[in-house]
Amino acid sequence: MKTIVVFILCAGLAVACSSRGKWESFSGDPVIEHKVDSVLKLMTWEEKIGQMTQYSADWDITGPVMKSDWETYLKKGLVGSVFNTVTVDGVRKLQDMALSQSRLKIPVLFAYDVIHGFRTIFPIPLAESCSWEPELMKRTASIAATEAAAEGICWTFAPMVDVARDARWGRVMEGAGEDPWYGSQVAIARVQGFQGDSWKDLRKINTVLACAKHFVAYGASEGGRDYNTVDVSRRSLYETYFPPFYAAEKAGVATFMTAFNEVDGVPATANKYLYTDVLRNEWKFKGFVVTDYTAVNELVPHGIAANEREAAMKAVNAGIDMDMNGNVFIRNLPQLLKDRKIKKSEIDRAVRSILEMKFLLGLFDDPYRYLDSTREKNTIMRPEFLQVAREAGRKSIVLLKNKNKIFPIEPNKPQTVALIGPLVKDKINLNGEWAGRGNREQSVSLYEGFTEVYKDSKVILTYAPGCDLTTEDRSGFGEAMDVAANADVILAVMGEDFNWSGEAASRTDIRLPGVQRELLQELVKLGKPVGLVLMNGRPLDLSWEDEHVDGIMEAWYLGTMAGYSVADVVSGNHNPSGCLTMSFPRSVGQLPLYYNHKNTGRPVEPENPGADYRSFYLDSPNTPLYPFGYGLSYTSFDIRNMQMNTNVLRPDGEIKVSAVVANNGERDGEVVVQLYIRDIAGSVTRPVKELRGFRKVFLSKGDSVTVEFSITPETIAMYNLDMKYVAEPGEFKVWIAVNAEDNRNEGNFTYRK
Ligand code: BGC
After folding, report:
1. Most buried residue, 453, 558, 626, 687, by CB count within 10 Å?
2. What's the pLDDT tens digit per position in 723-733?
3. Helix and strand element counts for the chain (H, E)
4. Is the previous residue joined to 383 through a cis bond, with omega within 30 degrees of 0?
């Protein structure tokens, strides 16, 4: 039996000390500073303000369309960055325009939302986070960067690292779920995937600048309604919403994006506390901050600026460097400067950091960054990229229920499988939202995947769509029932329209939309085994499904190779190992819902759950339907024999905690072993559980391994009453578990000074 030692990355904001998160900082590189100075000296104030201006080229629309004369500005050298244009020709045309007609010929930075792939589309980020494989996420980000860079993109508006705890909010699909610690690991992986491991990698042709967005607390919007008001304490910023941003900063992220929401009464885009006090002064961020789309203009309806002039002034004075498509900086900053409403030093600081990035990318040496159509053609959708997409897809799938082992549907068992549902042959939805330049028609449908994987097998596949995703149209029910009635197994393939998650896609009802559940109810009445494959962008309310269907497989939107990935898992070619990174509620009424909640003064008593005057719902348990960290496998794992080398932790000490993990099922498989802690009594209240480590372990059937974690004072550090990041003496609990509700292996320790 082997022993695997897991070194726990540092907790919370202390992720900085993790060797994995450390980026070789460029700041202060004398050669680059010298070059930046030499350009700055040549610039007029108008040209400097131009660098702080970004326009959408409108090839793609990602926000309200604004009228502007951006091409004229571009020719005059008054645009720092353009986004929403792609292709070698598109980028070259605009760069030519900027270089040939402007006075100083400063290259433009081309940006795009490369969120989960550019041409090869990978699983949506929420899905991919369920793989619990940071290396895989780094790889897919790196491929996305490679493809985007081949089309002239030098900057992606990703990763989105907003902690998200409310499934009504459509943007949960863009992030890594509800946990700040896990979200930090994912943030580091994605930043390094896009940018490389050192600033020197930015000179390579296959990297792009990354952007940590949306700073901050966007995921806490009231009622899960997009763009809505946020009211969080400074403590929850530090404990919950900051950590993934801090981790991204320490991993070297080049840029930050503001959030649309307000924080403590001040919209993020005018929030000096966030960008100057925290980001620059406390965290020492050296990159630049771009607003979200027209977020400076939105300071007016927010009610914090009487007009756009005042909005521009507040944004710059808060520490914002670039105006995304608002057309506000360029029109107002020159006069504000003359009127001494903003400082020249603020403008210089902003422009300096923007130019620095352009130098780091090598744009002053080659403004086209090796742009070439042959390279473009040879780079995009390479077979090895598609292979990674298929792999990432398989690893993102979470098996939620598997009664009577309905999954896998074995290829060598003679049986007819009825594929029923609106997503069986669908291609359009598979890429999900924010799917870069992915060609939706090129995605492999589930039907195509199944046909390929089950060819030469004993399985006969039949099909009927039954209904569509959103309407009340029941005219296909009859055909679907006929097809299902003649099958041995029914596999329903259902979910959400891809537009129903992502930006401006909040829902108040998170059940399967349209008449899909109704169709499922009819199918269940046939009395045959029913499996459900889901494709959606948020945790759904699956209470009815959980009670009535035999198997549920959460397949999210898996991208270009979706159909193959699902077929690999359904057929058993790949044993699922994905685990949820967001809790699935029993009903929308429980939201927001997350495992690391506080205990309250009146928690439900486990030994007397019905006791009155406790913090519960009359009509639902408090617990989720499927908890954070949960996911089934085709084999089974046992975790036992938890051991601790000591129960006392000292300031310079360490506790080794281990457990034996055994594969006692019928197949080889992988399991995500998770380490949770609880601080029993602190100077401030602590969550009932906090993830502090994990390890994904492969075990052949019959094998076992000892997994060991190391607990140090860093593991238990928290923000004390004075907001100091310290380890407080006291009693702690620790668990080695397979999900946040698994309490089988529990230990105690004391931290003593
Ligand atoms: C979104 C950002 C995105 C930007 C540019 C905004 O509406 O909130 O996440 O990066 O548009 O497309």
Report:
1. 558
2. 999 999 999 99
3. 22, 27
4. no
How far the first Cα of the chain sits from its last, in Å, is 36
Angle ∠(347,353,354) on CA atoms, nearest 5: 90
Instruction: Report percent pLDDT > 70 for the chain.
Output: 96
Whether residue 162 contacts residue 218, with contact meaning beta carbons closer than 8 Å, is answered with yes
DSSP tag of 751: E
List C-alpha distances in Å: 88 to 58, 84, 147, 156, 447: 16, 13, 11, 16, 34
Q: Identify the residues whose C-beta falls under 6 Å from ligand 1.
A: 62-63, 113, 157, 213, 292-293, 503
Burial of 528 (0-12, 13-18, 19+ CB in 10 A): middle
pLDDT tens digits along 309-343: 999 999 999 999 999 999 999 999 999 999 999 99
Which protein residue has the closest C-alpha to ligand 1 atom 12?
Answer: 62
DSSP for residue 282: I
**Cα-to-centroid distance, 215 and ligand 1 (Å):** 12
How far CA 616 is from CA of 178, 564, 590, 598, 623, in Å, comes to 21, 43, 10, 13, 10
pLDDT over 90 percentage in the chain:
93
| Tokens found for residue 686 | 């602590």
Total-model pTM? 0.97
Q: What are phi and psi of 682, to 5 degrees?
A: -120, -175
- 3-state secondary structure at position 392: helix
* Ligand 1 centre distance from Cα of residue 142 (Å): 21
Distance of alpha carbon 541 from its chain centroid, rounded? 21
Q: Give SS3 for 23.
A: coil
pLDDT of residue 505 exceeding 90: yes
DSSP 8-state code for residue 370: T
Residue nearest to atom 6 of ligand 1 (CA): 293
**Residue range 515-519: average pLDDT?**
98
Mean pLDDT of the chain: 95
Distance CA 726, CA 683 (A): 11
Per the residue annotation, which of 166, 179, 226, 292 is the catalytic one?
Answer: 292
- What is the mean predicted confidence (pLDDT) over 596-620? 93
Pick from 56, 62, 213 the residue to mutate for probing ligand 1's pocket: most ligand atoms within 8 Å of its CB: 62
Length of the chain equals: 753
Active site includes 292? Answer: yes
| Nearest atom, ligand 1, residue 174 CA | 9
Q: What is the pLDDT of residues 24-52, one digit of tens each?
A: 666 678 999 999 999 999 999 999 999 99
- 537 neighbors 173 (Cβ within 8 angstroms): yes
What are the structure tokens assigned to 623, written together?
A: 């617990």
Is omega for the bond preceding 592 within 30 degrees of 0, making it cis? yes
Pair of tokens at residue 614:
């406790």
- Those residues with Cβ within 8 angstroms of residue 659's Cβ, 6 or more apart along the chain or in another chain: 639, 640, 641, 642, 643, 673, 706, 707, 736, 745
Burial label, 375 (beta-carbon count in 10 A; 0-12, 13-18, 19+): middle
Give the DSSP letter of residue 500. G
Q: What is the three-state SS of 640-700?
A: EEEEECCCEECCCCCEEEEEEEEECCCCCEEEEEEEEEEECCCCCCCECCEEEEEEEEEEC
The secondary element (H helix, E strand) that includes residue 82 is strand 81-83
Q: What is the pLDDT of residues 361-375, one digit of tens each?
A: 999 999 999 999 999
Q: Which residues pair with 5 in a beta bridge?
A: 708
Query: Residue 16: pLDDT above 50?
Result: no
Q: What is the pLDDT of residue 14?
A: 42
Amino acid (1-letter code) at residue 435? A
Are 407 and 401 within 8 A, CB to CB? no
